[in-house]
Amino acid sequence: MLDAFSVKKPIYPLVAFFSSLCMLVCGMLLSKSLWAFAFAGVLFVLCCCFGLFRGAWKMSAAMLAFGLVIGGLAFLTNRNFNAFWQTVVRALLLGICAVPMITLPPADLMRCMNQLHCPRIITLGMLVTLRFIPILVTEIKRIWEAMKVRGANVKWYRPDCLYRAFFIPLVMRIIGISDTLSLSLETRAFALDNSPATVYGKVELRARDIVFSVAAVISCAGLGVAVWMR
Q1: pLDDT above 70 (res 112)
Q2: Which terminus of the chain has fewer Cβ atoms in its 10 Å neighbourhood, N or C?
Q3: Structure pTM?
């Protein structure tokens, strides 16, 4: 799943994290202003300028559709157009602000944390979590396709069939993946103590990362000034 958002030159992990956090906080705080749409557009252009176009348009399209659905329900419930567009812009900002982190390879994040001497229990937990989600999604798709091939009649009024044909195979696959993961860590001599380890592919801060962070801060400051002067 994360491979669909991969880019050739991702942003430095710490810069990606703090930039995403800064943009998200600023966008959410000022999302009641129509300037938030302009802010979302600026962030989209910023991501495209730094080679994150694929992740930017995918996240923007997905979260825009999500925001339109939720905002439409809010409008039908409250008959309040302000609630509609505020929901849309918040969903859009949430998707765009997540682009720097979504396009970041998990290996780069782990290498950066190892270089900063973070506890290995944290790096291991983050790595397993980031890699397990795409695997879980893939297994769900495979089981669902297998159900279609077998002709399983899964309806809302037949939960017993869904339980036998979907949930039991999924649980068994999760157990199998967990066993394989534990054996893989053991055979690779992964330890949680402070034993010395070598980082072969170091992640270094580059000039483009600094420019990206500065541009993100300027965008946030520009939104604040625009709302304040309104």
Answers
A1: yes
A2: C
A3: 0.72
